[in-house]
Automatic annotation (TrEMBL):
Lineage: Bacteria, Bacillati, Actinomycetota, Actinomycetes, Geodermatophilales
Transmembrane segments: 63-81, 87-108
Claim: Transmembrane is one of the keywords in the record: yes
Pfam family, one: DUF5313
Biased composition (Basic residues): 146-161
Alphabetical UniProt keywords: Membrane, Transmembrane, Transmembrane helix
Basic and acidic residues compositional bias, start-end: 133-145
Protein name (Swiss-Prot/TrEMBL): DUF5313 domain-containing protein
Species of provenance: Blastococcus aggregatus
Region (Disordered): 133-161
Keyword Disulfide bond: no
Length: 161
């Protein structure tokens, strides 16, 4: 779609829709637990959801939410399964391993679903993370250019003697 097509349809371009206008308000612990279990947060936390799914540690946050999902089954196994502690712990570790494999396999889709529930268009989190990645690459390139210029100046000094 061209820019005029976006304007005609009334949709925002990716550059326009990734910047949160609202202040980032972290949810209370009970709301975070609800959010971790897949619930929708109140509208005032909309920007925080975008931040949560696009910050540099977004994948660790996703894993933490996945572990919240596993807390109840793990507790039930540890309490009610009539077996030795070793078998119970082994079952829980195997369950965690399997759950994390599936959770990480669908990490991007899960983040997009959370952002969509917060009221953003699908693709917003990906566009935001892509833009942040480009900014990090540009900063790293500038840092490397400055270091190379500094080394070249030092070399030039040595050869001028």
């Amino acid at each position: 779609m061209s820019i005029s097509d976006h304007e005609r349809v009334g949709r925002a371009l990716p550059e326009e829709r990734v910047t949160p206008a609202d202040p980032i308000v972290r949810p209370a612990p009970h709301w975070w637990l609800w959010y971790a279990l897949g619930g929708r947060l109140p509208r005032r936390h909309r920007s925080w959801v975008l931040f949560d799914t696009t910050t540099g540690t977004w994948w660790l946050r996703h894993i933490a939410r996945a572990m919240v999902h596993l807390a109840v089954p793990i507790a039930l196994i540890m309490i009610f399964v009539p077996a030795g502690w070793g078998l119970r712990v082994g079952m829980c570790l195997l369950g965690i391993f399997l759950a994390l494999i599936y959770s990480v396999a669908y990490i991007a889709e899960s983040a997009e679903t959370r952002v969509k529930k917060a009221g953003y268009p699908v693709g917003t989190a990906l566009a935001h993370r892509d833009r942040a990645g480009l900014v990090r690459q540009q900063q790293e390139s500038e840092r490397k250019r400055a270091a190379a210029a500094k080394r070249a100046a030092r070399y030039q000094k040595r050869t001028d003697r």
